[in-house]
Design brief:
This protein is α/β, with parallel strands linked by helices and 301 residues long. It has seven helices and eleven strands.
């Protein structure tokens, strides 16, 4: 008997990624700083795209508002809003993979708009594309896609999320964080998290190699501090501190990092597609693994 037709490959669309990242990093978003009108406009766009791609709200609402208390360096409270949508798993609906990307950026300074195309409209746009592919081929584990607010002010949205999680943190298999995933100007996509969670290595090593995207492990050596250790420098840090395993995909800083010139037209669409295909394939590899317990492999230093 002849074999039936195989399922079409789950391929990330560079056109859709670029369409979304261009909208999110346009001048009218005013740099998306937390608490601003531009941030609200970006959030409205995220809500629309989540609904279009079939994500369901967490409980009854996509919105997870939070208040960040004043600090010595920031004397006033900040109000922020995370946006979360879910795809329920077909086999393990009570076990979760949480994919995060912050949608806020630096706003407007001295009359210049910091559009933040790579940082981090790129990760936010990837959430929509991952949602589309999850709709085409539902996952076995439940997946929550979360656009986090307030990262640029100190991981505020991620910290609020882990303080009041919508699902039990001990039911979370892995946090996949995407922050600056479009500008691989040197061709390198960094995979951060293999030192604290060495159980990630066989999963990542088994991924197909994307053209022009060089995967490297690094920036997670506990003996290194400062800007050369990325474990706590983006939203995965809040999850890690709460005991949730993570993998963080990111690129090296480039000339447009935190500059008004971080615009969508500087993104190489083909490389960006390969970067997000890697993240998607990592998500599928984790989803395909029954009884994965990366906590059990956490390295002690």
């Amino acid at each position: 008997m002849a074999a039936g037709p195989s399922a079409p490959p789950l391929v990330v669309s560079s056109d859709q990624l670029m369409a979304d990242v261009t909208v999110l990093s346009a001048d009218d978003m005013q740099g998306r700083a937390i608490g601003t009108e531009g941030n609200r406009m970006a959030r409205d766009y995220i809500l629309r795209r989540f609904a279009e791609e079939g994500l369901q709200p967490v409980d009854d609402d996509y919105l997870l508002p939070f208040t960040a208390a004043p600090t010595a360096r920031r004397p006033t409270a900040l109000e922020g809003i995370n946006v979360a949508g879910v795809v329920r798993g077909t086999t393990h609906p009570d076990r979760w993979i949480i994919v995060t990307a912050h949608y806020d950026h630096e706003g407007v300074r001295d009359g210049q708009i910091y559009n933040g195309a790579d940082d981090n409209a790129s990760g936010t746009a990837a959430l929509f594309e991952l949602a589309r592919l999850l709709r085409l081929s539902p996952p076995r584990h439940s997946v929550m896609l979360v656009a986090l607010d307030g990262e640029e002010r100190g991981l505020l949205g991620a910290q609020a999320f882990v303080r009041s999680p919508p699902v039990p943190l001990d039911a979370v298999v892995l946090n996949i964080n995407l922050d600056m995933v479009a500008r691989g100007d040197n061709g390198i996509l960094w995979v951060v998290g293999s030192r604290p969670y060495p159980g990630l290595v066989p999963l990542i090593d088994g991924l197909a190699q994307q053209p022009g995207v060089e995967r490297r492990y690094g920036y997670d050596d506990p003996a290194v501090t400062g800007r050369n250790n990325w474990v706590m420098l983006s939203d995965q840090g809040a999850f890690h501190a709460a005991g949730v395993p993570f993998v963080f995909f990111s690129v090296d800083d480039h000339a447009d990092y935190h500059q008004p010139s971080d615009d969508a037209e500087r993104i190489n669409a083909a490389w960006y597609r390969g970067s997000i295909q890697t993240a998607h394939d990592a998500l599928r590899a984790v989803d395909a693994t029954d009884d994965l317990d990366l906590r059990a492999t956490r390295a002690v230093h």
